[in-house]
Design a protein that fits this description.
Elements lengths: L2 H18 L1 E3 L1 H26 L8 H11 L20 H6 L5 H20 L1 H4 L6 E2 L2 E3 L8 E3 L11 H4 L5 E2 L4 E8 L2 H10 L2 H8 L4 H9 L3 H12 L4 H8 L3 H14 L1 H17 L1 E3 L5 E3 L8 H44 L15 E6 L3 E7 L3 H14 L9 E6 L6 E2 L1
Antiparallel strand pairs: 1-2, 1-5, 3-4, 6-10, 6-11, 7-8, 9-10, 11-12
The chain binds 2'-deoxyguanosine-5'-triphosphate and manganese (II) ion (2 copies).
One manganese (II) ion (MN) binds next to strand 6.
The protein binds a DNA duplex (12 and 16 nucleotides) through helix 3, helix 5, strand 4, helix 11 and helix 12.
Length: about 425
Amino acid sequence: MNSYQIDEKLKPILNQMHQTGVKLNVDFLNNFSQKIGLKILKLESEIYNAVGHKFNLNSPSQLAKVLYEELKIKPGQSGIKRKKTHHSTSAESLGKIEKLHPSIKQILKYRELAKLKNTYLDPLPKLVDQNSRLHTTYMVDTSTGRLSSKNPNLQNIPIRTDIGKEIRKAFVAENGYKLLAADYSQIELRIAAHFSGDKTMIDAFKEGKDIHRTTAEELGVDRRTAKTVNFGILYGVSSYGLSESLRIPPEDAQALIDKYFLTFPKLAKYIQETIQKAQSNGYVETLYGRRRYIPELQSPIERLRKFGERVAINTPIQGTAAEIIKLAMIEISRKVFSIEKLVSSIDIQNTSHKILDTDSVKLILQIHDELVFEVKEEKIKEVAEIVRDSMENVVKLSVPIIVDLRVGKNWREIESI
DNA sequence: GATCGGCGCCAC
DNA sequence: AAACGTGGCGCCGATC
Ligand SMILES: Nc1nc2c(ncn2[C@H]2C[C@H](O)[C@@H](COP(=O)(O)OP(=O)(O)OP(=O)(O)O)O2)c(=O)[nH]1
Ligand SMILES: [Mn+2]
Ligand SMILES: [Mn+2]
């Protein structure tokens, strides 16, 4: 099986997922939107009061004028980047000047709430069908082989903040069903361990270690930030970039990068070898032979060449992760289908708890390394077993592949099993 | 009214 | 001058 054949077998499954859709609690989202809407109005008027006049808060250009001209906040002094048109008003930049004016904290809060309302709370209810189900379209056309999801994108539903995460409560199972969510553990780190053969990292995974957690504890940050560190370093983050995301001096960031590659020495070697091979071939390859050509490697412009090198490292790993989950989707659908066929051929009443069929288990979402199923409550145990076994064993690497399974009535309140 | 680049931000 | 990678989408301001 090569990457092309994988995608061909996947297509009918993606079509089925599109047709099935996911059930949305529309009333919940509408209520939530009203509440957030009131908070937004309040913040707006407080901000206009604080700066002395109204303006369009959604316009970065107008906001930059207010902050950096009227309020005379010195962007250069605070290390705020100049964009093409004006100085940046990104959350990262505003964070640096938060203490210089009382309105800035409120602007950040406004941005957070407006984002949730305009991107999720208001658009999603408008897109449901008569059965309150939402039908995203999955595409297979990204440069690494990952899927993408659009109209609406259901691969970027908030999870980081408590308030954002509430939105996941709106993704619910039908009556008599539960959601089963299965997410690969540290997936791209495992693939990096496999490709590089780094003994330290391989042993860590064989011992069941959680490298994201270890990084989090060492740095005193949350686990999501630790992912940014671990993947950032693996994929070529600069000391400057790392210093920005951790809010530490570049020297300290460089020390972290050095330590990372001292801890995992063969990772550094693998990176160099992969870049060299990409330069001589002109392309890189995933585990199942998907190729990505990287013309940037030949560019006379250093910035582009460096970008090409990072692409050369990232693509085989991210692309292989995509292939693994695609194979799992194919395998799971094959198993459910063959059990269903077996059952109908021997004409058993479909009541035994041992029996599965396409009405008992529906694959409804794919979020890069996570699958979400809607499963008849009485079949959760059997389905969970098949899902775990398929996802963990459909591909064999030199490290174990582990899946984290959770069950619940909605996508927010799911408990590990 | 549609389209586009820029900015910004959500997720993995 | 840049400064982990992969996406989709909302809003603004310019343009047609
Ligand atoms: N380059 C890069 N890749 C990322 C980033 N965040 C996530 N990914 C990729 C690599 C991850 O292995 C993969 C799946 O994301 P997850 O959020 O599930 O994290 P991961 O599986 O590593 O850890 P987990 O044990 O599931 O919490 O997506 C990031 O910030 N940068
Ligand atoms: Mn994961
Ligand atoms: Mn995940």
